[in-house]
Amino acid sequence: MADAQYILPNDIGVFSLDCREAFRLLSPTERLYAHHLSRAAWYGGLAVLLQTSPEAPYIYALLSRLFRAQDPDQLRQHALSEGLTEEEYQAFLVYAAGVYSNMGNYKSFGDTKFVPNLPKEKLERVILGSEAAQQHPEEVRSLWQTCRELMFSLEPRLRHLGLGKEGITTYFSGDCTMEDAKLAQDFLDSQNLSAYNTRLFKGVPQDGKPCYEVRLASVLGMEPALHSEMTSKLKSYEFQGSHFQVTRGDYAPILQKVVEHLEKAKAYAANSQQEQMLAQYIESFTQGSIEAHKKGSRFWIQDKGPIVESYIGFIESYRDPFGSRGEFEGFVAMVNKAMSAKFECLVASAEQLLKELPWPPTFEKDKFLTPDFTSLDVLTFSGSGIPAGINIPNYDDLRQTDGFKNVSLGNVLAVAYATQREKLTFLEEEDKDLFIRWKGPSFDVQVGLHELLGHGSGKLFVQDEKGAFNFDQETVINPETGEQIQSWYRSGETWDSKFSTIASSYEECRAESVGLYLCLNPQVLEIFGFEGADAEDVIYVNWLNMVRAGLLALEFYTPEASSWRQAHMQARFVILRVLLEAGEGLVTVTPTTGADGRPDARVRLDRNKIRPVGKPALERFLRKLQVLKSTGDVAGGRALYEGYAAVTDASPECFLTLRDTVLLRKESRKLIVQPNTRLEGSEVQLLEYEASAAGLIRSFSERFPEDGPELEEVLTQLATADARFWKSPSEALSGQA
Description:
Elements: E1 14-16, H1 20-24, H2 28-45, H3 47-50, H4 56-69, H5 72-81, H6 86-102, H7 120-128, H8 131-135, H9 137-152, H10 178-190, E2 198-206, E3 209-217, E4 236-239, E5 242-250, H11 252-266, H12 272-287, H13 290-302, E6 308-316, E7 327-335, H14 337-348, H15 350-354, E8 372-382, E9 389-392, H16 396-401, E10 405-409, H17 410-417, H18 429-454, H19 495-499, H20 503-518, H21 522-527, H22 532-552, E11 557-558, E12 563-564, H23 567-581, E13 587-593, E14 599-605, H24 610-630, H25 634-645, H26 655-664, E15 671-673, E16 676-680, E17 683-687, H27 693-701, H28 708-722
Parallel strand pairs: 1-15, 3-5, 8-10
Antiparallel strand pairs: 2-3, 4-5, 6-7, 7-8, 9-10, 11-12, 13-14, 16-17
Helix pairs in contact: 2-11, 4-9, 4-28, 6-27, 7-9, 11-12, 12-13, 17-18, 18-20, 18-22, 20-23, 20-24, 22-23, 23-24, 24-25
């Protein structure tokens, strides 16, 4: 059997996303709007399979064929008759649920591959003897032959997502290196093209020069389109001794489905902002234009306090090894009015709270653009995973000039709160009951501060294409050096493109640090209804949760490559290091032996030293983070951040050794079962499923009732068309010509 870190355990937590009451309160028109947006999101989410690994689309298609022909209970009888044990069949269900939940065979949180926890030969018997194989023998056998080796392979390079020798990714062809990614980013910057909706493929050299295809995601291919700013971009370029060809049409059949449902949603929009927003999204996905998506995002920002909230596109860049390309995601959610009222109070206090952050006013935006901040109950969240909160859009220029929105996903947080005492690792016994009681409320506070005042704060110093600066070069002083500003962002440069591989983690660390720093403010805690001893407990558990998370983060560090696989967890480890460095016994991490005789550890936080020791340390660190970000000082930012992110076995903590303990006692991330909506006549019905691996599989089996087989055919055709980009002697897609 595989190493435990590469399987999903049979007892993995599975929870259903509860949005029944919020959906019940929607009007018929709002339900139709939510339904079509959900359909668009689910269709678009299929693109993530093509953004993850070469084999992911085939695995998805194979599983979908199996469970369409026989539901999990029916297939169970067949599996047992083929000699599988109950445990082995459950392991297969958990694997399938994991593929659906992560939209691929790599964990969305940590980018680690997971494989079926049963013998390949037994799974083959189940698949080839299934009802699906009886109905379509050639198709099922072909799918199995194509993906079976890669489904189980734990060859070192295939264990994690990464670039070049560090891992596998389908954002880049298999022969691309970090140097190729940097060259491509420089090329994109030179043409004012965003990387968000692109993939990069390295071709056969011409005239001794490297050749690259930059492929944009769009419905349209290379045919000319009237009145599109994209048409002039679709051509060949010479850049720094290399050939670049800009093309489009990536994921075209999938994005066509997205566009069809966005068109239908327009008929049920509540206002002109929503109509114009959807029109621009349609333009973006049709043409391959990020500029159109930005325009749509402007209308989205202006659409204040909608009953049905949504966002869709190529959004988060966490899983691009270079940190610039966006994974497709789409969400649809309904407002939770009670919690939203608290967030509105936080927004009202935001300008005052921003003044408390430890950097000069000149490093803050010229004008705080009051954002929407709502608590939402998620109906649909497509992509590779569901976050607890979001601050979007991610476009730097829009955030500086138009603002942003914050959302806290209430029913997702409710799943995150669910903690069993016996599964609470690395805490002192006397902390566990307090932790369970206050984890949820403290997380509400942290998410609110993280999204609104973490991601929502700070200014980037920019020189535009005309040479004008958005700051006074004469008077603005760097508080770290006492000198005038020496560096800034040039026209076309963004935070992601400039800081690339550390951008996501660095920014998450800054936002988490702001949350810890500002949760010490009594005014903030009063907004959330906490005073006196309760307020102190919320602070203590919030800080304790963060330092424990810093230890748990070691699961996501790869010693062989000296690299981190998850931005948020790297950020939390960095904060742990900062607080340990503060000294005076504020935080200690001590190796111990557990009651079971195996290695264990304990995290301790001295609550009496949070303010006198922890706050000043965090203040110094936060100021450095912001100054380096504002000035675009990549060298300084990397030196600071990578220094804290280094994992060594230096005493007293011995983090590399502790990593083994963390892996020994890790708990797998929960799987979340989402509902479906179905249009019956003119009414939209909500379809809910049980909280189990089988329930999650059923939700996907019923997700595409009209065109499931067609979609699977599309996915495998798209994957096969590009399979050559990942073929090598050691990693051929077996069964493909």
